[in-house]
C-alpha cells in the first residue's frame, strides 16, 4: 500500500516545513514569517498528493482516464470560482488562496476515491485487504531513492538561481 508510505513521507515533510524558516537563507523577518505561514497552510497539500497519485495510477491502469479528466474538470471549476471570489475581495489573504488550492485537491481526491469505491471498477476493486501491504519494503526503497533524487534536483535548481 503505497498510500501508507506516501502519508508517512508527507508527515516527515510537514514536520520539516513546520520547523524550517527562510530567514536563515537571508530573507527579511517579514518575508520569512509570511512564507512560513503560507507553507503551514500548504501542509495538507502533501497529504492529498499521497492519495491522489495512487488513485490516478489505479484508474489509469484500468483505462479510466476520462473519469480522471471529468473529476479534474469539476475540481478546477470549483477552484476557479472560489479563487475568483478571493481575488475580487482585497480583504482575503494569501493563505486563503492557498486554502482554496487545498480544497481543489481535496475535491479531486474524494471524487476519484468515490468513483473507485462506488463501483466504478467492479472487476478490479474488491475492497481493502492486508494483501495491499505486500511488497512494501521494495516500495520504501524506491521511494527513498526517489525522494533523495528530488531533493538533489530541487537543491541544484535553487543553487543555480
From TrEMBL:
Segments crossing the lipid bilayer: 34-53, 65-84, 104-127
Domain of life according to the entry: Eukaryota
Keywords: Membrane, Transmembrane, Transmembrane helix
Protein name: Uncharacterized protein
Native species: Acer saccharum (Sugar maple)
Top-level taxonomy: Eukaryota, Viridiplantae, Streptophyta, Embryophyta, Tracheophyta
Amino acid at each position: 500500500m503505497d498510500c501508507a508510505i506516501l502519508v508517512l513521507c508527507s508527515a516527515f515533510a510537514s514536520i520539516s516545513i513546520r520547523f524550517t524558516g527562510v530567514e536563515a537563507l537571508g530573507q527579511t523577518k517579514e518575508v520569512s514569517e509570511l512564507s512560513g505561514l503560507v507553507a503551514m497552510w500548504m501542509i495538507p497539500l502533501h497529504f492529498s498528493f499521497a492519495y491522489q497519485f495512487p488513485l490516478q495510477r489505479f484508474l489509469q491502469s484500468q483505462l479510466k482516464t476520462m473519469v480522471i479528466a471529468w473529476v479534474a474538470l469539476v475540481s478546477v471549476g470549483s477552484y476557479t470560482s472560489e479563487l475568483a471570489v478571493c481575488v475580487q475581495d482585497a480583504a482575503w489573504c494569501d493563505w486563503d488562496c492557498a486554502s482554496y488550492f487545498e480544497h481543489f485537491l481535496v475535491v479531486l481526491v474524494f471524487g476519484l476515491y468515490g468513483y473507485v469505491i462506488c463501483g466504478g471498477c467492479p472487476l478490479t476493486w474488491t475492497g481493502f485487504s492486508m494483501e495491499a501491504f505486500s511488497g512494501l519494503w521494495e516500495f520504501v526503497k524506491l521511494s527513498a531513492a526517489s525522494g533523495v533524487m528530488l531533493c538533489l534536483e530541487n537543491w541544484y535548481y535553487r543553487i543555480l538561481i
